[in-house]
Known about the structure:
The protein is mainly alpha-helical. Helices cover 72% and strands 0% of the residues. Helix 11 (206-221) packs across helix 13 (244-259). The longest helix is centred in the N-terminal third of the chain and has 47 residues, at 26-72. It is elongated and about 85 Å long.
Amino acid sequence: xxxxxxxxxxxxxxxxxxxxxxxxxxxxxxxxxxxxxxxxxxxxxxxxxxxxxxxxxxxxxxxxxxxxxxxxxxxxxxxxxxxxxxxxxxxxxxxxxxxxxxxxxxxxxxxxxxxxxxxxxxxxxxxxxxxxxxxxxxxxxxxxxxxxxxxxxxxxxxxxxxxxxxxxxxxxxxxxxxxxxxxxxxxxxxxxxxxxxxxxxxxxxxxxxxxxxxxxxxxxxxxxxxxxxxxxxxxxxxxxxxxxxxxxxxxxxxxxxxxxxxxxxxxxxxxxxxxxxxxxxxxxxxxxxxxxxxxxxxxxxxxxxxxxxxxxx
Length: 313
C-alpha cells in the first residue's frame, strides 16, 4: 500500500521538519519517517473498519425496527443493508481483525456518535434508497454500494477528517492518498475468498521500504552538494527569494535523480512538481520545474548524472 508517491510526500514533510526542529539527528528522523509511513497503513485499516462499524450501527437500528414491527404487527423491515454481503465479508476478514486486535481500536466503542451521524447520512442518501429499492440482490451489487458510499460520503467528510486529526497528527495529511487505496481494496474483494481475502500489504515490496530510507538519507547527507547544484543552476533565477519548502523539494528531487538509476529523470521532476503544487506557493511548481530541468541537464552534461534526458522535458 505504501507506494512511492506516499513515500515522496512523507520524505518532503519529514525533511522539512528535520531542518525546522534543529535536532539534526538523522537516525531519529529516519525512524520518524518510517513511523509516519506505518501510521498511513494504520489509517488504511481503520477506514476499512469504519465500514464494519457502520454495518454494526445499521444492525442496532434494524433490531429496534424489528421489535417495533413485531409489537405493532406490521411488515418486518429489510435486512438488505445490515447484512450486506461485502460488509459481512469485511467484518470477518482475518487481516483486518488482527489489526483491530493489535491496535485495540473499535469504532463502536470509540466513536458511537459519529457512527450514528454517518449512518443517518447514508440512509438519507439517494445511493442507499436506490440500493434498497433495487431488485438486484447479489454480492456485486452489495460491493458496488459500498464503493459508491465511500466515494460520496466518506472520502470527503469534514466531520471524519476532524475526528481523524484528533486521533493522529499524521492522518489529516494522509487521508486523501489512503482513500484511493481503500477504494482500490473494495473493488478487489472477491466473494469466493471469504474471510481470507488479502488486504493490501504495508509495502508493495521490500524495495520500496529501502527506497524510503535511501532517499531520506541521501537528501540529508548530501545536502550541501545538492544545494550547490541549485545555486549554480539558478543564475537566471531569483534563488534568494525561493520559498524554503521549494529548496527542500528540489533537494529531495536531486537526491532521487542521483541515487536511483532506474527512475527516469522526467518521472522524478514531474512527481516533485506535483508535490510543490500542494505543499508550496502557487508559483512554486513552474519555478521548480524549470530549475530541476536545468540542474538535471547540467548534471548529465557534466557526467555527474548517468541518465538519458530528452531534448525537451
